[in-house]
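Record type: monomer structure entry
Structure origin: computed from sequence
Chain ID: A
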Amino acid sequence: MPPDQQDPGSLTVTLIGPDEGRRKAVAAALADCNVGAMREFTSYPTNLEELPEMLAKHYDVILVDLDSDPEYALDVVEAIFACGSAMVMVYSEQTDRDVVVSAMRAGAREFLTVPIVPTDLADALARVSLRAPAAQRGKWAPRKLFAFLGTKGGCGVTTLASNFAIALAQESGQKTLLIDLGKPLGDAAINLGIIAQYSVMNALEHFVRLDSSFLASLLTTHASGLSVLAAPGEFSRNEVTKESIDKLVAVARTSFRYVVVDVGSSVEWIDSTLFEDASAVYLVTQVGVSELRNANRMITRFFPMLGEQLQIVLNRYVAHALIFDEEHITKALTRPAQWKIPDDWATARRTRNTATALAMEDSAISKVLHQMARTAAGLPASSDKKRIFSFFG
């Protein structure tokens, strides 16, 4: 058994379900799985501020009945999920896709259909037992989704998204996934020097059966520890739907603390959960006439109400060589830019040609990326060079 996997027989499990028949049926299936300890609650918790946290501290897995009061049950799932320690699973007689997606968006790790087959439940318990050791409890950070969007092709969105993801994984120490949605052919895998056997299209074309196990089988691991779902290496004729994007995002967020998505320069999925649920949307642009024009149009059309959720990133920034002053740039963008990535062309070219991650070198660009990552993870900003690059040796 891997060192980070807990023996299912030592799992402590609790059932929350007002419907006695369904609850007893699930309890019987759990008994067949030989879990370590089990407790049943005959009603949903009424205090969503304190009780879910108490449950998460005392139980490894919490199963919630989704059918007795679906709307409130999802609130319960979300409240438990926010505590971070326990894995949440739901059980339901419904099989509607929207119900499944809603449950996963709320934080459910597994969706079990009643009547439950004991072997299916055992498999689900085995999957959720692959979690952080109990000693790491209390070091919880909220799960976050980050989207990188470029104002036009060639503005550097893939380079920044890829290296931001690496910096985020290393600064936070949390499981992080990079999804390359760049169309038609993304460059994240090439930039990071990895060869991916599968791509994001394998997930999107089979989104109906997509779950955490299926997703895990499609990923490639970078030397930094970052998980990557690469873009396809060939053109695809299949249409990518909003439903498939929503499902991919939902499943990814149940498996990873942080999910970073390289959207390229496409606004095709602007109405999907990819942008609706993002903790931050990083709009990458450069200080040029067409780039600032595009940025202005995108901000006013798609992101007028985002506030601090929208983070503007000026890439290849050289203050003394600008054709516009700061006042004109801010006016064009309708707000100040939060991040300025310096124009370190020599380093960027060398790392790209050698497929070396910028974030793993000590450079002016990587310093800003690590500060971005620390801010995104809720960590204090650091100007200590040794601290930022201590993991590089």
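Annotation 1: The two ends are 31 Å apart (CA to CA).
Annotation 2: The first strand starts at residue 12 and ends at 16.
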